[in-house]
Amino acid sequence: MATALAGGLVAKGFAAKRLKVVEILPEARARLAASLGVACFEKPAAAAPFGDVVVLAVKPQQMREAARAIAPHLGTTLVLSIAAGIRLADLGRWLGGYGRLARCMPNTPALIGAGITGLYARPEVAPQQRAQAQAVLEAVGEVIWVEDEALLDPVTAVSASGPAYVFFFIETLERAARELGLEAAAARRLAIATFRGAAELAVRSDEPPATLRERVTSKGGTTERALASMRAARVDDAIVRAVQAANERARELGDEFGRD
Predict the structure, then answer these.
(1) H or E stretch including 103?
(2) What is the mean pLDDT of the segment spanning 112-137?
């Protein structure tokens, strides 16, 4: 995700040499410097002074150590965390009571510039810094703001985990096509193109998905029969329960990672 953000910023015209990347692995540092032209450092202290925004793109288990390493060099810099499950109260504590914090939850389509990110900022964050955080994240897709940090758990359950649900549906549609006799390559092509086209149609239409669905569903036709089967199996309820389970796990991770 850090590579995607850096690459997205450079692609949008941000000067690569103004981007400072801290990467502990020598091979990764060399690769980033060569591919993006960004300035790379082994330790946070070597990258100081920091710029307007510090993005903490580390694994949740590494966040406490990373926070303590940057704390002496912050000044008034905005700290933007993209680590799943790390609440800002815990991050602020690890930073010695620092308050200029924002937290976001992107998703993997950011890797191709097609992501969507939920973003929250604490009250201490100035309007200009909110705009800077949004600009960083818009380098890889869309951004939506939430006014309560707790709402990042539903964002995680819906959009951060969501690509896996989409891939699962594509897998299943592909399997059905194969079981009905279609050759494997054709089955995959049909499944992926159908999903991509339907999603793009939803993006371009002002009508809700329910209306678009109804327009495909002719009375007495094949689609009506398929949807009746899904409703009988309560597929819609199963999807809602799955998202609720992901939401609950997001809350649990916040509790687990926040323990000292």
Answers:
(1) strand 101-105
(2) 96
Distance, CA of 256 to CA of 210 (rounded, Å): 38
User: What's domain 162-254's architecture?
Assistant: Orthogonal Bundle (1.10)
Residue 55 makes CB contacts below 8 A (sequence gap 6+) with: 2, 5, 80, 82, 136
Question: Contact 118/87 with Cβ under 8 angstroms?
Answer: no
| Beta-sheet strands, E only, within 108-152 | 115-121, 141-145
Going by the DSSP 8-state scheme, the letter that residue 148 receives in this structure is S
Which pTM value belongs to this model? 0.90
What CATH number is given for 2-153 in this structure? 3.40.50.720
Mean of pLDDT values over 2-17: 90
> What is the distance of C-alpha 154 from the center of its chain?
12
Contact call for residues 101 and 122 (beta carbons, < 8 A): yes
